[in-house]
Specification:
The complex is a heterotrimer of chains A (about 120), B (about 250) and C (about 325).
Chain A (H helix, E strand, L loop, with lengths): L4 H4 L17 E8 L7 E8 L2 H12 L7 E6 L31 H10 L3
Antiparallel strand pairs in A: 1-2, 1-3
Chain B lengths: L2 H23 L8 H29 L4 H6 L10 H4 L5 H22 L5 H9 L1 H19 L3 H19 L8 H6 L6 H18 L25 H9 L11
Chain C lengths: L8 H9 L4 H12 L12 H26 L8 H26 L5 H10 L15 H22 L5 H29 L3 H20 L12 H5 L7 H17 L11 E2 L5 E2 L5 H11 L3 H14 L1 H7 L12
Helix pairs in contact in C: 3-4, 4-7, 6-7, 6-8, 6-10, 7-8
The chains are: A alpha+beta (about 120), B mainly alpha (about 250), C mainly alpha (about 325).
Bound molecules: fe (ii) ion (2 copies).
One fe (ii) ion binds next to helix 6 and helix 7 of chain C.
Chain lengths: ~120, ~250, ~325
Amino acid sequence: MSLDPRINRLDLKRVNDGEQTASHLITWEVFHQDKRGKQPVHAGIVHASTPEQALMFAKEQYARRGKTANLWVVKTADVYTFNSEDEAIFETTPEKTFRDPAFYKVRERIEAFQSKNKL
Amino acid sequence: MNNDAIKDLLYRMADDALIIGHRNSEWTGIGPMLEEDLAFSSMSQDKIGHAQALYNILYTSFGEKNPDMLAFQRAEKDFRSCQLVELPIGEYDFSLVRHFLFDHAEALRYGLLEASSFAPLAGLARKVRGEIRYHVMHADTFFKQLSTGNEVAKARMQSALNYALPYALGIFEPSAYEEALIADGVFAGEARLQELWLEKITPIVAAAGLQMPAIDAAKAIYGGRKGYHSEYLQPLLAEMTEVTSIDPAAEW
Amino acid sequence: MYGNTSLTAEEAKIVNAAVEDPAKLEEFEARISRGEKIEPGDWMPEQYRKQLIRMIEQHAHSEIVGALPEGTWITRAPNFRRKLALIAKVQDEVGHGQLLYSAAETLGKTREQMLMDLLSGKSKYSNVFNYPANTWADIAVIGFLVDGAAIVNQVINSKGSYGPYCRALERICYEESFHLKQGHDNFVYLATGTKVQREMLQEALNRWYRPLLHFFGPSDRDSQHSEKLMKWKVKLASNDDMRNQFLDQYVPKILELGLTLPDPELRRGDDGIWVFGDPDWDEFKRVINGDGPCNAERLEVRRYAELAHRWVREALMNPKEKYVTPMA
Ligand SMILES: [Fe+2]
Ligand SMILES: [Fe+2]
């Protein structure tokens, strides 16, 4: 006899034992977009069998509070990443200033030109 | 407008939502997958919230008692819920089939009520549209996936459907006020709702590869709408009042 | 014992003695000491992986088993406000379990394996959930104080080194603040209510005092340390430090309501360290080893949830899809 009336209503003996293998289904990576116009951001995973079901579950696990514009799900198996040993490829040498807007400073040149030509 | 007719409709809807909300909340923590626990729990919160909103209309528009009194302090014979919602959660197949049958009826009912001449109900119908749309989407997704999943699940779903259908017909138990509701433009009536419901669910059942049981009005399980309930309602109501009855004067 | 590693002497020896590739280990430890997080694909010492799985898994089990004592009162919650708050709160706990299992999965153990280990008793969960919620007042004590204790532990753990665990905890801590608020609200209503309500609450408080002291695990004097786990930011605070922080934060909030705690020795020392009477660590050990008031029922219910509905998951399963370890 449980203190929980819900539990007393269950047929707890109705359990089929046995091994279970990966029965919690595959996982899906969930991306959450909080507002139209914003980037969807990775929020976590859900276990589900189909994209429809993954979306159903993602809605309750990742969108039950706050604002949501949309959710994306993608099979974990379909996501590719770099190996973390290759992290070094993201280090850029500091000389790559030609890609920075701040690198381009022509004001001095213009002023020199103006004073030289009395403009 | 006929106030008794509207009140009767509100009580049916509120009591259904309250009781099925309670039943679905029983899955919190013991469902078939963690993700599904979360979904059932959210839907139960929605339903209990709908009940609260409906009782609140009874309170503010008709001077009935406040929502907490109506939900937690009313005698069993005054409840107007159908017997479908009272049944224990059973196993997941039954809970899911009940959810599928009930929520389609509910979605269609609120759909009709969006055009109701009784403004508070029309307003509520529009407000809950999104939540109920998710409930139906969830029900359809699972109903189809389980029915087509494997033979074991298919057989379970079919027998749950056979068992639940006569109870589901009880949702549409005619009331003494049908004509008044229709004449006043409050609600299109239970008979019309049942028609729409059958049109809606029959193809979904077929697409899921299940057999739609024969619709036999004689087998419909009526009574709930008149205060005759299954053996399961009273124990649940007793649970709901257990705490307040310790000290009815207290604020909980 | 929540997301909290307590090691036996034997286990501590194994952790401390494990040998790893020195160059990789140095790089790994340097990363942690720079305050960077470790991500799932990174090289990591075997013991780091093992202890993290164990800790996160226990934490996840604690969440889903923790949903059961409070679930006891879901159908009986007395009004709309309390009912909706309680269902939403218990739902969050199940959600926390889901998030934490996900974090542990990234380390290479499947969710079903973790759940099987819970059912077989191989893997533990917090002792506090082996006690019953006898009355509605127990729900107030759990919501306010058990969640309060859990928050102390979780906030500390969220500063750890493993990225996925920290991310899960960040979200969890946000939701916990709702748990604490609704628990405190319920607690205050009972404490400031009628005589009957106050008595109920005081009795519940008396029942939960010891399990709450046990919550953070045995005293530092009696538990094994692993310098490595500290250095790797798997364990971030000692059991006694966390317990002290909890007492410091919550005892005043209990006393301000004119309630008492069943411990004549309880007081705050001048050094800020709380002194308390012997909380009976033998009972703690008995309960951990399966002999608490609700251990059997908790596992029986979880076994039901897991196994009676296996047909659902089997029907959903697509045999062509192969499970791969999630990444975040
Ligand atoms: Fe939690
Ligand atoms: Fe919590």
